[in-house]
Design a protein that fits this description.
single chain; about 400 residues; Aspartate Aminotransferase, domain 1; Aspartate Aminotransferase, domain 2; seven-stranded mixed beta sheet; three-stranded antiparallel beta sheet; binds pyridoxal-5'-phosphate
Length: about 400
């Protein structure tokens, strides 16, 4: 009864795990969640007020499928102000979360059999999204020793006559890596030379540390801009995951195709949330900066603490709110009848023994790592990491 398309799809691993943890919590078991993929902050009050205002203003009807003109205008202004990039509202489409923007982009450009290069470790949904669009994911493993930076020479080797696109994500979920400008520039030049589209997922652009700056891929050169679909949204920067607003900017022909596709599937994104997103994008930098500084404290604490643990190595993350310790040295060890042979076993062991939730690296094509999120209070981070260390010491 179920289509082959869906039968071939792996359900979102992070969603499945969240459901399992909610179940344990319901049984009264207290779990510290290092599996969290969203800021542990509330949406700033100025944005909430605009959301309320929208209802009272009667902004409760459809908008154009591509989104409110005022929001698209605000997005254009942001790109001009922050990256000196000029877009017109016709080159912007607003969707129900960046997840939908990514899906729209792939549906707009991929024909059956087209190859899409995805550097790994990568966010859980990319591979499945490409398959759902009848494309062929081509995975390129990035080097952990190089801090999971982009490796253009490896990408070059993966390019074939069928390469239609590539998906990049910097700052990166799950590694926390921020790709170097040098590698990104070379990648852009490769995309121009070999004529493929780069979908640049810049969801975590505001969460960058150690004095680094987000590199907006499309801003690298006018030729690279012509090859780029930038995907972004309000979920992570403004603690608005539940509002479901994402957007994409790119060449007008592609944006029109994405908007037409959206017009026949979901139509416009939630209208009051679009209105509130204007406030987020135009007027909320102080809240973002306060959140970033707090994340930075937690990041430094967690990074130092993990690297003190016997058997753990972890490359230094400079973006987002994740890190990816390597747990391979524990494979083959056991405690109390529980044997750890891979990263899923490790995630399960840590839930059982330390009552902390982490995500298996297998979900991100990183079989020797686990993903830990520091989107949690400092108290919980301290307590959770103590418990983790104790549990790891028991493995013999
Ligand atoms: C790299 C990346 N891209 C896109 C998304 C989706 O964002 P949204 O909530 O806007 O759909 C996420 C959310 O976890 C993400 O981590």
């Amino acid at each position: 009864m179920i289509s082959k398309r869906i039968q071939n799809m792996t359900p979102s691993a992070t969603m499945v795990q969240s459901a399992k943890i909610a179940e344990l919590k319901q049984q009264g078991i207290e779990i510290i969640g290092f599996n969290v993929g969203e800021p542990d902050y509330n949406t700033p009050m100025n944005i909430i007020k605009k959301g309320e205002e929208a209802y009272h203003l009667g902004l409760t009807r459809y908008t154009p499928s591509a989104g409110m003109i005022e929001l698209r205008q605000a997005i254009c202004e942001k790109f001009e102000k922050e990256y000196q990039l000029k877009y017109s509202p016709k080159e912007v489409v607003v969707s129900s979360g960046a997840k939908q923007s990514l899906t729209n982009a792939l549906m707009a450009i991929i024909d059956p059999g087209d190859e899409v290069i995805i550097p790994t470790p990568c966010w859980v949904s990319y591979v499945e999204m490409v398959k759902l669009a009848d494309g062929v994911p081509v995975l390129v493993a990035l080097d952990e020793e190089a801090g999971f930076d982009m490796d253009v020479e490896k990408v070059r080797e993966a390019v074939t006559s069928k390469t239609k696109a590539m998906i990049i994500n910097s700052p990166n979920n799950p590694t926390g890596a921020v790709y170097s400008e040098e590698q990104l520039r070379k990648l852009g030049e490769l995309a121009v030379e070999k004529d493929f589209i780069v979908i640049s997922d810049e969801m975590y652009e505001k969460l960058v540390y150690d004095g680094k700056k987000n590199v907006c891929f499309a801003a690298l050169s006018p030729e690279i801009k012509e090859k780029t679909i930038t995907v972004n949204g309000v979920s992570k920067a403004y603690a608005m995951t539940g509002w479901r607003i994402g957007y994409a900017l790119g060449p007008i022909e592609i944006i029109k195709a994405m908007s037409d596709y959206q017009g026949n599937t979901t139509s416009n994104a939630n209208t009051p949330a679009q209105y509130a997103s204007i406030e987020a994008i135009s007027n909320s930098e102080d809240s973002v900066e306060a959140m970033r500084l707090e994340f930075d404290k937690r990041r430094q604490f967690m990074f130092d603490r993990l690297n003190q643990m016997e058997g753990i190595t972890c490359s230094r993350p400079t973006g987002a709110f994740y890190m990816m310790p390597n747990v391979k040295s524990f494979y083959g060890k056991s405690y109390n009848g529980f044997q750890v042979n891979n990263s899923l076993d490790m995630a399960n062991y840590l839930v059982e023994e330390a009552k902390i939730a982490v995500v298996t690296g297998a979900a991100f094509e990183a079989p020797d790592n686990i993903r830990i999120s520091y989107s949690n209070s400092m108290e919980n981070i301290q307590e959770g990491l103590n418990r983790m260390e104790e549990a790891l010491k028991k493995l013999q």
